[in-house]
Amino acid sequence: MNKTGEVLWKLNRLVFSITLVGYKVCEPTWYHPKRQQSFYSLWFISKGKGEFIINGTSYPVEAGKLFFFEPSMICERSTDPDDPLEYYFIRFTYAAAFVDKEKWNFSEETDIPFPLSGMYNIQNPPHVMNLIEQIHTLRKKRGATVAMKRKLLFLDLLLTIIQDFRSQKITGNTTNAIDATVDYLTAHYQDNITVDALAKQAGMSVSHYSRLFKKYIGYSPMDYLRHVRMDRAKELIVLSDFRLKSIAQSVGFQDEFYFSRILKKVVGVSPTEFAKRHKTKETLPRK
């Protein structure tokens, strides 16, 4: 599987529509012959045992297993006759819709592979099943409120799944150490912060800390710090009349021109142009 941070980054760029939700109690003779899948779907096994063969690879199926199926997959499925399967399924479609450097980007699902595919082990099945059960409960209800709640629950489900994957890779103490440095970066972004100091704070070597931070957060420590600084800078550019030099210094940059280059790299336009597009007042930050 891709690094969880990368998977979460990709999921954040997608919008989803749930097309079908259900719960299946299999008969002892249940069997799906080999065939190509037509839809994206998530299956969560709640009871029983069986075997799924996906693109020629056999996977043992039991309670707590999670499967993501996608079109073009060739699947064959069967249950253990002595312990029949029971499972939830959610069929969905998706598209990419995200803002990058001040521009909206759109793509159909056929242009973007879904970042989760095949079988996954879930460490905390009750939490995942609770969210799926809530989505399942809403399947017969209609209305704008229900539709919104279903979308939010599905996003919560995907986030919970990624967090479960991440907790399997990183121990609790290590997770707490990474979280502590994230809190420190958020509170002290304007200070002169180095990876060496962050690694020391976490009680790790620089290489080990940097690798775990990227895996856990999705950014390197310095990239994360840069984005935190840029987010604060954007707020100040839009909501204040401070000079650009003062804004740069307040978010940890002593060189105003370097600050301008970094902000342009992040948002795609210069600070002055960003201000023109987003300020609610006519007054722009003074140079």
Provide an overview of this structure:
This protein is of the alpha+beta class. Helix content is 45%, strand content 26%. The chain is built from 10 helices and 10 strands. It has helices at residues 4-11, 125-137, 144-169, 172-187, 195-202, 206-217, 221-239, 244-250, 256-267, 271-278, and strands spanning 14-25, 31-36, 40-47, 49-54, 57-62, 65-69, 74-79, 86-100, 103-108, 118-121. Strands 1, 3, 6, 8, 9 and 10 form a 6-stranded antiparallel beta sheet that branches. Strand 8 (86-100) and strand 9 (103-108) form a beta hairpin. The chain is elongated, with a radius of gyration of 23 Å. The model has no long low-confidence stretch (mean pLDDT 89).
Overall average residue pLDDT = 89
Q: What fraction of residues sit in β-strands? A: 25-35%
| Radius of gyration, taken over Cα atoms and rounded to an integer in Å | 23 Å
Stretches where pLDDT is under 50 for at least 5 consecutive residues are none
Roughly how many Å apart are the termini? 47 Å
Shape, per Cα inertia axes: elongated
Order of helices and strands: HEEEEEEEEEEHHHHHHHHH
Number of strands: 10
